[in-house]
Design goal:
The complex is a heterodimer of chains A (204) and B (308). Chain A has 204 residues and is α+β, with helices and mostly antiparallel strands. Chain A is built from 5 helices and 5 strands, in the order αααββααβββ. About 13% of the residues of chain A have low confidence. Chain B is mainly α and 308 residues long. The chains are: A alpha+beta (204), B mainly alpha (308). The interface between A and B is large, with 70 and 82 residues.
C-alpha cells in the first residue's frame, strides 16, 4: 500500500509539480523544487496559525494551536485581534481625568485631550490620547497607572509649585436606549482608578 | 486525483506568475500610510516612546513579557536616539514609497513599525495592526518590480527588460488572506454579541462622544435604520471575508466595502484606520485593470500637458 502511494505520488503529483510548476528551475514562472517546498511550508504554517489566532472559536484544537504559535506571533508582531466594537460595543461614554494636588495645598483638574472638544485637525493628531485613555480604563492595564500619574506630575510640576499627589479618576455616563428608540445620557459618575503620592525622584 | 487538483489549485493561487503592478501600487499606498501615521505622531514621538514617555519601557516589558522584535529595546534610552530612530524610520518609509532599495526598506519599515507598536501597544488601533501585518508579508513581495526607482535603474543598466516581468504572487496573496481574515474575524466577533444581531449596536457606537466626527442626520437613529445598518455591517464583513474570493462578486463587494469605510470615515473619528484598510483593496484588483487604470491616468496627464 505504502509502495503504491509512493508510486502514485511520483507518477502523478510529483510529476505534475515538476512538469507544470517547477519546470525551468527559475522564478520566470516556475519555482525550483526546494524553494517551492520551503515557501509552501511557510504559507501553510502562517495560514493555519493566523486562522487559529484570530478566529474567536475556542475549541481545544484551536486553543492548542494558539499556545504553540504564541511565542512566535508575539516575537514577530503577527498577533492580532479584530474585535472592534464587539462582541458588544461600549455602552457608556467615559473619560479619564486627574485631580492634581500641589504641595501648597491647591488642586487642579487635569484632563486628557477630549476629542469632542477638538477641531478636525487637532483630532487627527490627538486621537492616540483617546485610545490611550480608553485602554487605561481596562482592569488588566492597572499596572500602567502609576506611570501615568508620574507623567502627569512631571507635566504639572514647576520648581516653585511641585505636585504632591495625583488622583486618576474615571468618569462615565451610560448611553441609555429608551423604549421609544431615543437617546438619554445617564448621569456622570466617578470611579477612582488610582491615588498616587508623588516622590521627589518622580519629578526628575 | 484530489491531491493533484489541490496541489494544482494551490500552485495556481500562490505561484502562477502575474504582473507585480498591484503589489507595487500597494507598496506606494502602504508607504504613504506609514508616512501619514508617523507624521501624525510627530508631535508626540517622545511622549509615547521616549525615555520619559507616558508608560516606561520597563512597565511595558512587565505587562507584555517575552522576547519581542523591538529595535528600541537595544537602543540607548535617550531623546536623541529616539529622534534618530524616527528619522531613519521616516526616511525608510519615503524610500519604500518611491521604491529605492525596496526590499531593504520594506524590512526596515516593518521592523521599525513592529518596534514602536511593541513599545506602546496602548495607542494602536486596527489600522496600525493591519499595517504591521501587511508589512510582514510585504517584505517577501516583489514590491519593487514595478513603479519603482529600483526598476528604472535596472532597466537603464539593462539588467531588466522594459516589459514588466510576471512574478509569483504568494506574498500578495497572504496580504489578501490577512485582509479577508480580518473581515471574517470581525464578523464572528460581532455575531457573538446580542446587540449586533438585534441591531442596536450602531446606536451605542454613534453615541460615543469621543468617536463622533461629523454630524449624523436624525433619521439614522430610527430603530429600523439602525437594524439595517447593523445587519448590513455583518453581511458585508462576512462577504468581504468569504465571498471576496468569488471572482464575479469581487468588484461589487470592493465597491460596497469602499462605501462602508468611507461612511465610517465620515461618521467616526479613528484617523487613518479606513485608509489603512482601503489601501489593500488594490491587491484584489485584476492586474489587467490596474494596468488599464494606470494607462488611463498617463493618457489623461499627457492630454493635459499637450493642451497646456
Amino acid at each position: 500500500m505504502t509502495e503504491f502511494l509512493r508510486m502514485h505520488w511520483e507518477a502523478n503529483v510529483n510529476w505534475d509539480l515538476n512538469r507544470s510548476f517547477l519546470e525551468g528551475g527559475s522564478m520566470g514562472g516556475w519555482l525550483p523544487k526546494t524553494k517551492w517546498w520551503a515557501i509552501s511550508a511557510f504559507l501553510v504554517f502562517h495560514l493555519v496559525a493566523i486562522a487559529c489566532w484570530c478566529l474567536p472559536i475556542d475549541n481545544r484544537l484551536i486553543l492548542g494551536c494558539r499556545a504553540v504559535v504564541r511565542p512566535y506571533f508575539r516575537w514577530s508582531g503577527l498577533f492580532q485581534s479584530w474585535d472592534m466594537f464587539a462582541p458588544i460595543p461600549k455602552v457608556a461614554n467615559t473619560r479619564v481625568e486627574a485631580i492634581v494636588e500641589y504641595k501648597d495645598g491647591s488642586t487642579e483638574l487635569w484632563t486628557f485631550p477630549r476629542m469632542e472638544q477638538l477641531g478636525f485637525r487637532e483630532k487627527l493628531f490627538k486621537e492616540r490620547y483617546r485610545k490611550f485613555a480608553e485602554n487605561l480604563q481596562r482592569e488588566e492595564n492597572d499596572p500602567l497607572l502609576p506611570d501615568v500619574a508620574r507623567h502627569i506630575a512631571r507635566i504639572e510640576s514647576t520648581p516653585s509649585r511641585p505636585v504632591k499627589m495625583v488622583v486618576l479618576v474615571q468618569d462615565w455616563s451610560a448611553i441609555v436606549l429608551r423604549s421609544d428608540g431615543s437617546y438619554e445620557p445617564g448621569p456622570w459618575e466617578q470611579h477612582v482608578l488610582l491615588g498616587y503620592g508623588v516622590r521627589s525622584e518622580d519629578l526628575r | 486525483m484530489r491531491l493533484m487538483s489541490l496541489v494544482s489549485g494551490w500552485n495556481k493561487f500562490f505561484f502562477a506568475p502575474q504582473s507585480p503592478e498591484p503589489i507595487a501600487v500597494f507598496r506606494i499606498l502602504y508607504g504613504l500610510m506609514v508616512l501619514a501615521t508617523l507624521l501624525l505622531l510627530r508631535p508626540d514621538w517622545l511622549n509615547w516612546y521616549g525615555p520619559h514617555a507616558w508608560v516606561s519601557f520597563s512597565t511595558v516589558r512587565s505587562l507584555e513579557p517575552g522576547t519581542r522584535l523591538n529595535v528600541l529595546s537595544i537602543l540607548p534610552e535617550t531623546d536623541g536616539w529616539m529622534e534618530a530612530f524616527f528619522w531613519v524610520f521616516l526616511g525608510s518609509a519615503v524610500l519604500l514609497t518611491v521604491g529605492l532599495l525596496t526590499r531593504i526598506n520594506a524590512i526596515l519599515v516593518f521592523v521599525c513599525l513592529a518596534s514602536i507598536q511593541q513599545r506602546n501597544l496602548l495607542i494602536t488601533h486596527g489600522g496600525d495592526t493591519f499595517l504591521r501585518l501587511a508589512g510582514f508579508f510585504l517584505m517577501f513581495a516583489p514590491a519593487g518590480a514595478a513603479f519603482s526607482i529600483d526598476r528604472l535603474i535596472r532597466v537603464r543598466v539593462r539588467k531588466e527588460s522594459v516589459n514588466i516581468q510576471p512574478q509569483a504572487p504568494w506574498a500578495q496573496r497572504m496580504i489578501q488572506v490577512q485582509l479577508a481574515v480580518m473581515y471574517f474575524s470581525a464578523f464572528l466577533w460581532k455575531v457573538k454579541g446580542a446587540s449586533w444581531v438585534q441591531g442596536t449596536a450602531p446606536f451605542y457606537v454613534y453615541h460615543l462622544d469621543e468617536l463622533r466626527r461629523f454630524p449624523l442626520p436624525s433619521w439614522m437613529f430610527h430603530a429600523w435604520v439602525l437594524k439595517i445598518g447593523s445587519w448590513s455591517a455583518l453581511a458585508l464583513e462576512f462577504s468581504l471575508g468569504v465571498l471576496i474570493w468569488v471572482k464575479r462578486l469581487r468588484y461589487p463587494l470592493l465597491a460596497l466595502g469602499a462605501l462602508f469605510h468611507l461612511w465610517l470615515e465620515y461618521s467616526l473619528n479613528v484617523p487613518l484606520f479606513q485608509w489603512d484598510i482601503l489601501s489593500a483593496y488594490v491587491l484584489f484588483v485584476d492586474p489587467k485593470d490596474v494596468r488599464h487604470a494606470i494607462e488611463w491616468m498617463r493618457l489623461r496627464k499627457l492630454n493635459r500637458v499637450s493642451v497646456e
